[in-house]
């Protein structure tokens, strides 16, 4: 089956067309600056030259129309007609408590997604726009919502309830939700394949490390604890997000800097993290380069990040009562040998040790643990688009 995977942002749209039989992408691309000047499309068909075009794209409907036209274009297309698309899988960031698995989009499901807008005001609205555009342009083609939060709905109550008056949960659903669930689910499944063991028997710690980062404890293929919380701001220090703070710091900074709610929200989400500590960049590649050139604050940012990841690994080892493997994925996890080494250093009590030669890899699926150590360290490139396609196929198989 051919599945079109759509990931809509407020002014961008990423897409892939995948063959779920071969599990290979037939084409992928990006529409940028939707509703802005200088908008355009970059399309990369498998086995053909890429296409780049700058043109006016006022909204998501026009963007998706452009994508569909390009997929059947005589020169750049990869299909004869749109009827070959069996379903569309949409990344939806927040499904709240209502959605513990992917769902066929119906009027009721759409209302549920809209009800979660308050929990993800920057993400769910463009996700909804993408679904509505596909419904308009592809009537009769099943649309499936695949939720970032769904994988974490298996967490026990003691892992997701905060130490607030319980009525805050009852009235406003304030709880830990977790994110990056599609990525954590994919790499956990791949880990079972690499280890040649049943997923149901494994205790895994999945480290999704990049500009946005989260760590998840996975027992028997199910999330039992994760670092992101009510919002993606909680947990690790990230590219521009502060991560965990003493909550009193927020009101203290607001008072000292005369900030209102919008300003402090921007400060914590967009001006903090490794950008704020290093003063260099939110991109770990830039920070690693600056640290190699002797920039002390850049090195401090890297040290803090590695410390935080190690702290979570230790905590989750306790939650799991042992670890069968540690997984590194996403941009930093897949590509930074130095960060992997820094995180794993000092975890010898867990039977963790990196082989320096094996660790000299970027973006490859490999075990980098030293010979004789009892806890494998796996580098597994994430593939959220494939996971979305497979989830979508599963939902529509019986229709």
Automatic annotation (TrEMBL):
Key words, A-Z: ATP-binding, Cytoplasm, Kinase, Magnesium, Metal-binding, Nucleotide-binding, Transferase
Cofactor note as given: Mg(2+). Can also accept Mn(2+).
Cellular component terms per the entry's GO annotation: cytoplasm
Primary enzyme class: transferase
BP GO annotations: acetate metabolic process; acetyl-CoA biosynthetic process
Binding site for substrate: 91
InterPro entries (alphabetical): Ac/propionate_kinase (IPR004372), Aliphatic_acid_kin_short-chain (IPR000890), Aliphatic_acid_kinase_CS (IPR023865), ATPase_NBD (IPR043129)
Family of the protein in this entry: Belongs to the acetokinase family.
Subunit structure comment from the entry: Homodimer.
Function: Catalyzes the formation of acetyl phosphate from acetate and ATP. Can also catalyze the reverse reaction.
Protein name: Acetate kinase
């Amino acid at each position: 089956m051919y599945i079109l995977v759509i990931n809509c942002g407020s002014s961008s749209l990423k897409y892939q067309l995948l063959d779920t039989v071969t599990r290979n992408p037939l084409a992928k691309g990006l529409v940028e600056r939707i509703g802005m000047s200088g908008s355009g499309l970059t399309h990369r068909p498998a086995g053909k030259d890429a296409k780049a075009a700058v043109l006016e794209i006022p909204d998501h409907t026009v963007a998706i129309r452009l994508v569909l036209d390009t997929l059947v274009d005589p020169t750049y297309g990869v299909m004869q007609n749109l009827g070959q698309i069996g379903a569309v899988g949409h990344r939806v960031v927040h499904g709240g408590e209502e959605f513990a698995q992917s769902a066929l989009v119906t009027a009721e499901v759409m209302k549920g997604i809209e009800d979660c807008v308050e929990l993800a005001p920057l993400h769910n609205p463009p996700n909804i726009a993408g679904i509505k555009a596909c419904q308009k342009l592809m009537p009769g083609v099943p649309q499936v919502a695949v939720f970032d939060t769904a994988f974490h709905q298996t967490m026990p109550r003691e892992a997701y309830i905060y130490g607030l008056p319980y009525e805050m949960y009852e009235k406003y659903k304030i709880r830990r939700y977790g994110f990056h669930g599609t990525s954590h689910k994919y790499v956990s499944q791949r880990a079972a394949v690499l280890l040649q063991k049943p997923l149901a028997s494994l205790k895994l710690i999945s480290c999704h490390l990049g500009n946005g980062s989260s760590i998840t404890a996975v027992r028997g293929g199910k999330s039992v604890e994760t670092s992101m919380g009510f919002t993606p701001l909680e947990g690790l220090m990230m590219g521009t997000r502060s991560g965990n703070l003493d909550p009193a710091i927020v009101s203290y900074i607001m008072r000292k800097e005369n900030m209102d709610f919008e300003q402090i929200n921007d400060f914590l989400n967009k001006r903090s993290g490794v950008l704020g500590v290093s003063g260099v960049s939110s991109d770990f590649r830039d920070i690693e380069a600056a640290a190699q050139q002797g920039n002390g604050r850049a090195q401090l940012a890297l040290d803090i990040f590695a410390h935080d990841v190690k702290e979570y690994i230790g905590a989750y080892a306790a939650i799991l009562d042992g670890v069968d493997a540690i997984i590194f994925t996403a941009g930093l996890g897949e590509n930074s040998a130095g960060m992997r080494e820094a995180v794993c250093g000092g975890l010898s009590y867990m039977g963790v040790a990196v082989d320096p030669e094996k660790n000299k890899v970027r973006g490859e699926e490999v075990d980098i643990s030293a010979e004789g150590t009892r806890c494998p360290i796996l580098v597994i490139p994430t593939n959220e688009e494939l996971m979305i396609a497979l989830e979508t196929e599963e939902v529509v198989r019986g229709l």
